[in-house]
Amino acid sequence: MRIGVVGYGVGGRYFHVPFVQAAEGVELVGVVTRSPERAAQVESDAPGTPVYASLGELVDAGVDAVTITTPPETRRELVLEALSRGVHVIADKPFAPDPQGGLDLVEAARDAGLLLSVFQNRRWDADIRTLRAVIDSGELGRIWRVESRFDLDEPATLELGPTGGLLRDLGAHLVDQVLWLFGRARAVYARMDWIGEGDQRTDSAFVVDIDHVGGVHSTVSATKANHFQAKQLRVYGTDGSYYSDGTDVQAQAIFGGRRPSENRDSWGYELEERWGTLHTGSGARKISSEQGSYQDYYSAFAAAVDGVGPQPVPGSDVIHTLEVLDVARRAAETGKVIELPVS
């Protein structure tokens, strides 16, 4: 699959291109950026990769698919342009500002006969993959309650204003993870912390409580402005509990200068001293880390383009994530639990 990456900010440079380069069945054929500084970064990171000034130029050069990783306010039009030009699309999260906007893009892709996937790459985090394996083992019994906490000391990276905020950023991942693991939501309550004034007012932290249709209650929380870091999971079931206090393995490796293409087999595993612990009637034991592998997202998408597998995260599957994010914001504003229709 010949793919181009549109945008070369933090997302394009650190969370897309390195994993495109490591994926099976994928070739990076171009990057779109108008910044001379970022064009120089492309040459340093991926020598010889062509740089284009627009999506149109990239498509004209020949691609099968594009990743749209520009700021949220520009994402919709670029997704529509790519679909209108006949190429498959991976859209960064959140891929639309609201559920209806997401439905519009899904319908546009369907009408064009093209794939539209959303880059919910954190379904491929080491801690989430390990938790998935623990749940599938059945040793926890029926799951009652889940707590997912992801605190970062990164106030400077908060996107300010009405289209920014932490709920739309990290919240889009945390909410998507629990919906992927435990199914649809039937009720949502939320609290949010705010910084800034006027058009710079932004949510810097959140706590979102979700009652899932299947009976699980999940709580996801995060902050970027409280000068603290933690990535923790607590899961309680009828037969035991599971706790992990891990690290952001792949992001830390990328920002530390390492790349998944250098050693695919050892990439993305949590350090042994940070492995999670399963507690049951038989006692407590450490659970070895599953592999975190964002490149698997791209490999799966390439296979789907070839018609030999499902999309990794179809846009239609993420409409409910957008619904929960939208409802969480309203719940925080009103102080009320908001029920969602259950079909």
What structural class do the secondary elements suggest? alpha/beta
CATH fold call of the largest domain: Dihydrodipicolinate Reductase, domain 2
The helix count comes to: 10
Strand content: 25-35%
In the predicted model, the low-confidence regions spanning at least 5 consecutive residues are none
Instruction: Note the main sheet.
Output: 9 strands, mixed
* Shape-level CATH architecture of the largest domain: 2-Layer Sandwich
User: Please, what is the average pLDDT?
Assistant: 95
Number of domains: 2
Termini, distance in Å? 37 Å
The CATH homologous superfamily of the largest domain: Dihydrodipicolinate Reductase, domain 2
Q: If strands are numbered along the chain, what order do they take across the biggest sheet? A: 14-13-12-11-7-10-9-8-15
Order of helices and strands: EHEHEHEHEHEHEHEEEEEHEEHHE
Overall morphology: globular
Number of strands: 15
CATH first level of the largest domain: Alpha Beta
Helix amount = 25-40%
Gyration radius from CA atoms, angstroms: 20 Å
